[in-house]
Design a protein that fits this description.
The complex is a heterodimer of chains A (253) and B (432). Chain A is an alpha/beta fold and 253 residues long. Chain A has one domain: Rossmann fold, CATH 3.40.50. Chain A contains ten helices and twelve strands. By secondary structure, chain B is of the alpha/beta class. Chain B has one domain. In chain B, a hairpin with a 2-residue loop joins strand 3 and strand 4. Chain B is globular and about 70 Å long. The chains are: A alpha/beta (253), B alpha/beta (432). Chains A and B meet through helix 2, strand 7 and helix 3 of A and helix 7 and helix 8 of B. Chain A: Keywords: ATP-binding, Nucleotide-binding. Chain A: It comes from Roseinatronobacter bogoriensis subsp. barguzinensis. Chain A: Pfam families: ABC_tran.
Chain lengths: 253, 432
């Protein structure tokens, strides 16, 4: 599904600040991978480079989605190709209704893929059903995108977008940050409901606790722009117990 | 720097040169007095120049010159005029001249309408207490000679007296069919106590226009004023909107401006009775050779009134937007709630926004806030939309419309707001 090979990236401004330093990763269809790592290891940069945010320059390496070069595409093309980034800090957009936003996005992607656009009626039916599962009420759907939403509401709204857009490859960037226990359960249930054989996930997190809810197949430890260790779910538990220091020392040895 | 006295002498000289030998229009006693008083005001004040404080950002020469700068007619590319879908009483002016054949009969329950040209021939008319009177009041503390010029020489316009709650809006439609038309139109609107009406205005008007609308809202009256100026590039004009509000009365005035070589809109509003409200809003989109100036002056002259000024401008390719907005709170106007926001979205580095927000407050227990900002499209919002699959152009249009939404939200009836929003969306899609 997603194949990242020897990826190097640096900040466009402050040129010379290298963030990703040879990251490689392969995620097969249906798999859930987690990336853990200390602050500043480049986890969020990886999500931005993959989704096409301005401000980063890829200097070496490749990233492909189902064999298609992601790095050559505009952000909207990557989305239409099936990539989805759940933002760590979902953006507030005053003046744009949540429903308008969702419908514009769904239909733009359908159009880009040569599919027929959803009518207002069809769209409404689908969105209402999916919103209900995430306990998103009609009022939240009517409000401007993320404006006045609590931290938990913003994250649920991200998962609603994911559910509506039905991407193949979902990247969750610290989706657990700012969530209480109940909200984390709700968000995780939403993610788990989307798990299937044709859809893969890359879950970026600081903490192991999210992985109790969204159980990964593979866990990677990232440090200084690279994957330093890969293992099963037990690796996350080891981090929880001992911190990153041992693993980082081990990698440098 | 030119001495004040010399500048004033030049302004007066320019006014005399423009007016000498120009006869006032024929009319009955009431209007002849109003016209000759106004003509004298123009001669006393002189013509505006760019050295005047309220013309610093906008050069008035094109509005005061003896000759009109010719302008090619605009191709609407099949776009229907604003408010086309609404049931309304249509009153059509072609290059500033009333066109009876193209207009609906002036009959509507709850309203009396007549042409200025007919009322002017009578010796007595209800409009005599308003025609030229609000304009004259509006000359202090800021002089507005173009409005006096209009009072003196306008022969076209309608006088509307709202006595009830008419079922339909009254729609003033301004068509331009000449490349050199020079129009002067003067309307008077009186909203009687407890009455309520909607006035729509749309169309490019004329190659050059000078419009005055004087509005007198009695106690408990309500007026909705929605204006769409656009989307003809090759025209210049000045529109003055004077409104006096009695106790417990309400005014909502909204203007959409798209394109135009030079447009100056002055709104002068007095809250004379307690517990009234006046909302003035504008959405402006300018692309290329475009200069748009909103100048607003709201006077709180009674306690417990609310006023709002919401102006949003989207500019690019050298377009210039100006906002000069003032809230004046008299000593008596305790518990005033005043709000003013003017914002521009500059889509490139060539566009320019000039703002002069002013507060002048003499009462001690008031709430007044104002803000003015100038910015570009938020890159985080743009990326968020694109990351969800929305193409860049569509995402930008969404964000621009979102920026303008606060001004459009000032229109009470969402159907009119949607009509204008859809036009704005089409405008951006056409322009890419």
């Amino acid at each position: 599904m997603l194949e990242i090979n020897n990826l190097h990236a640096e900040l466009e401004e402050d040129s010379g600040v290298k963030i990703l330093k040879g990251l490689s990763l392969t995620i097969k269809p249906g798999e859930v991978h987690a990336i853990m790592g200390p602050n500043g290891s480049g986890k969020s940069t990886l999500s931005y480079v993959l989704s096409g945010r301005d401000g980063y320059e890829v200097t070496e390496g490749s990233a492909t989605l189902e064999g298609v070069d992601l790095l050559e595409m505009e952000p909207e093309e990557r989305a239409a190709a099936g990539l989805f980034l759940a933002f760590q800090y979902p953006v507030e957009i005053p003046g744009v209704g949540n429903m308008t936003f969702l419908r514009t996005a769904v239909n733009a992607q359908r159009k880009a893929r040569g599919e027929e656009e959803l009518s207002a009626g069809e769209f409404l039916k689908v969105v209402r059903a999916k919103a209900k599962e995430l306990q998103i009420d009609a009022e939240m759907l009517k409000r401007p995108v993320n404006v006045g939403f609590s931290g938990g509401e913003k994250k649920r709204n991200e998962i609603l977008q994911m559910a509506m857009l039905e991407p193949k490859m979902c990247i969750l960037d610290e989706t657990d940050s700012g969530l209480d226990v109940d909200a984390m359960k709700l968000v995780s249930d939403g993610v788990n409901a989307l798990r299937d054989a044709g859809r893969s996930f890359l879950v970026i997190t600081h903490y192991q606790r999210l992985l109790n809810h969204i159980q990964p197949d593979v866990v990677h430890i990232m440090s200084e722009g690279r994957i330093i260790k890969t293992g099963g779910p037990e690796l996350a538990l080891e981090v929880e117990e001992n911190g990153y220091a041992d693993l980082m020392a081990e990698a440098q040895a | 720097m030119m001495p004040r006295a010399k500048l004033k002498a030049q302004k007066v000289e320019a006014a005399n040169a423009l007016l000498d030998g120009r006869a006032l229009p024929q009319g009955g006693a009431w209007i002849t007095r109003a016209r000759s008083d106004a003509e004298q005001r123009v001669r006393d004040m002189g013509l505006p120049t760019k050295r005047d404080e309220y013309w610093r950002y906008t050069d008035p020469r094109r509005l005061t010159s003896a000759d009109v700068v010719a302008g090619a007619l605009h191709d609407t590319q099949g776009e229907a005029p604003a408010f086309d879908a609404f049931d309304r009483v249509k009153l059509v002016f072609v290059d500033g001249v009333f066109d009876a054949d193209a207009s609906d009969p002036m009959a509507l329950d709850g309203v009396e309408i007549c042409q200025l040209s007919q009322a002017a021939m009578t010796d007595l008319h209800w409009a005599r207490d308003i025609y030229g009177a609000l304009e004259a009041r509006g000359q202090s503390p800021v002089e507005r000679p173009l409005a006096s010029l209009n009072t003196a020489y306008a022969t076209e316009g309608v006088l509307i007296r709202v006595t009830g709650k008419p079922a339909k809006p009254i729609s003033l439609i301004y068509q331009r069919k000449s490349e050199t038309s020079d129009a002067m139109v003067h309307h008077v609107i009186r909203v009687e106590s407890g009455a309520e009406a909607t006035i729509l205005e749309n169309g490019p008007f004329a190659t050059r226009f000078n419009q005055v609308m004087e509005v007198d809202i009695a106690d408990g009256g309500t007026l909705h004023h929605i204006r769409a100026q656009g989307r003809d590039h090759e025209r210049a004009g000045s529109a003055h909107f004077f409104a006096r509000l009695g106790a417990g009365s309400h005014l909502k005035s909204f203007t959409l401006t798209a394109n135009g070589a030079l447009i100056r809109n002055d709104s002068v509003i007095w809250l004379d009775g307690g517990e009234g409200s006046a909302h003035v809003a504008g959405a402006t989109v300018g692309d290329g050779a475009f200069h748009h100036d909103d100048t607003v002056f709201i006077t709180h002259g009674a306690p417990r009134c609310e006023s709002r000024q919401v102006f949003k401008k989207v500019l690019r390719h050298g377009a210039v937007g100006v906002f000069q907005g003032k809230i004046l709170v008299d000593q008596i106007a305790q518990l005033t709630d005043g709000y003013q926001i003017s914002q521009s979205l500059l889509l490139d580095e060539d566009a320019q926004f000039l703002a002069k927000p002013e507060l002048e407050i003499y009462a001690d227990d008031v709430k007044c806030s104002h803000g003015s900002t100038s910015g570009e499209i938020d890159s985080n919002q743009l990326f968020y939309l694109r990351a969800r699959g929305v193409p860049e152009d569509t995402a930008k249009t969404l964000l621009v419309l979102a920026f303008l939404a606060e001004a459009l939200d000032e229109i009470a009836d969402p159907a009119y707001a949607e009509d204008l929003r859809a036009r704005l969306e089409a405008w951006f899609e056409r322009r890419g």
